[in-house]
Amino acid sequence: MVCKSSDRGLWVMGVKPESGREVLLRSYLETGGYNCCLGQLDDLAESRPLGIVLDISPFSDDGWGLLLKIKENPATRNIPVLPIFLSESGAVGGVFPVAGFFTLPLDETHLLDRLAIYGLTEEAETWDLEALIVSRNGEEKLAKTVEKIGFEAVMAYNGKEALALTSIKPKYLAFCAMMLADMSAFEFLEKLRLYPYSGNMPVFVLLKSEMKDGEKTAMSRDIAHLVRKKELSCEEFLSHLRRRD
Questions:
Q1: What value does the mean pLDDT of the chain take?
Q2: DSSP H helical ranges for the chain
Q3: Do β-strands 130-134 and 81-86 pair in parallel, antiparallel, or remain unpaired?
Q4: What is the Rg, in whole angstroms, of the alpha carbon atoms belonging to the chain?
Q5: Strand, helix or coil at 237?
Q6: Distance between CA atoms of 161 and 187, rounded to whole angstroms?
Q7: Are the C-beta atoms of residues 39 and 52 closer than 8 Å to each other?
C-alpha cells in the first residue's frame, strides 16, 4: 500500500512500489503494532510520519540518496530514520539503529537543538564528559560546537583508533563519519555494541552533502558484509523498535 498524505504511521522507503520487496517487512511491522505503508519523498514534508524504515541495500531504490535528501531538508530532517538491509527478495538481513544523522557542512543550531531534545546536554557542564568525533577530516567546527556546551572533544581519525580510545575511557556520545578509512559507521557501531562500557553510547552519523553514484554503491556493498546469511526473525527485528501493543 502506497502512503497517503494522512498516513502518520511508519513509512517504508527505498523500495519500489509493486516490487513486493516490502511484504515481509510490513508483516513484521504490523506484528509490532505499527501501521505502515510505502512512502514517497514528495509527500514526506506534508505528512511527517512517525518514522521511516529505509532500505539502503544494493537492491534499494536509491536508499542513500533518499537518506541525504531527508536529512538535508529542514522540513524533514527531524523525522527518525531506521536504516535496514533488505535482500533482493525482501528478507530482512540487517538493522542499523544509530542515534541520528547530521549533514555536513554542520548546522550548529540544529545540532545543539537536537542534542538538547535528546537530553544529552543536561550534564555536560556538571560532569567531565567526553564526546568522541571519528572522522578523517577532523571536523573542527563540530569539535568547537560540542565544547561550547561543556563536552571535551576527543578526536579519532579511523575506526580502530576510536575503538581503542573508547576502551581506555568510556565516552558519553560519539559522532562518526559515514565512511572511514578502515570501516563504515555501521561497522563501528556494531563493534561498539560488543562491549558493555560502550553498548548504550549514542552514535550520530555524519553525512556528506553530496554522494556520487559510485560512493552510494560502495557504501551499500560495505554494509553487505555485516549482514547475516540468515534473515532476521520478526522478534529479532522488533527488538530494535518499541512495540506498540
A1: 91
A2: 23-31, 44-47, 63-72, 108-117, 140-148, 159-168, 185-192, 213-224, 234-238
A3: unpaired
A4: 18
A5: helix
A6: 14
A7: yes
